[in-house]
Amino acid sequence: MPELIKEFEYHVNISGTDDVGMGPSGRRIVVAGVGGEVAGDRVKGTIVGAGGDWLRIGEDGFARLDARNTVQTVDGARIYIETCGILELTSAIMEILGGGDAPTQFGEQYFVTTPRMETGDDRYAWVNQTVFVGEGRLVPGPRVEFRLFRVAG
Asked: What domain count does the chain have?
């Protein structure tokens, strides 16, 4: 059975949303993500450049995530993170998105991701051949926080 090993935590600050409206695959909301931090034993740095999440909200009360961000490590590498996942739109999640001040906790709602990472930097080439899973939560700001785990075989 594979083992999950905590790799790092990171957060992305939400700077705004753009409600595109209903489309053939659900309601589409684009969430702009600006800045953030990454903290772990093997990866440390900041979220840089353009990034965001192209959410699709279904009639079932869940959002399908399609997020992309770039990490600038403290030693100068760049790591691209593409995250897919599912977020349960609980009342607590909706309150945070509406400006509320009560954070959600990991595990209070279904917020599970499958990040995929890429880099051209040999020091971090291991991320190119690693499967990751994550869990998320929303906190005031608003910002989204993730805990990422690598799957060890």
From this structure: 1
The domain that contains 93 carries what CATH number? 2.40.160.20
Instruction: Determine the residue type at 119.
Output: T
The DSSP code for 94 is H
Asked if the peptide bond before residue 142 counts as cis, ω within 30 degrees of 0, the response is yes
Return the SS3 of 46. Answer: strand
Residue 74: CB atoms within 10 Å: 10
User: pTM of this prediction?
Assistant: 0.93
Rounded CA-CA distance 71/45 in Å is 6
Tokens (6 digits) for 43: 């990866």
Q: Give 130's contacts (C-beta < 8 A, 6+ positions apart).
A: 117, 150, 151
**How far apart (Å, rounded) are the C-alpha atoms in residues 65 and 146?**
13
Contacts of 88 (CB under 8 A, 6+ apart): 61, 62, 109, 110, 111
Domain that holds residue 42: 3-152
pLDDT tens, position by position, 81-94? 999 999 999 999 99
CA angle (127, 131, 134) in 5-degree steps: 100
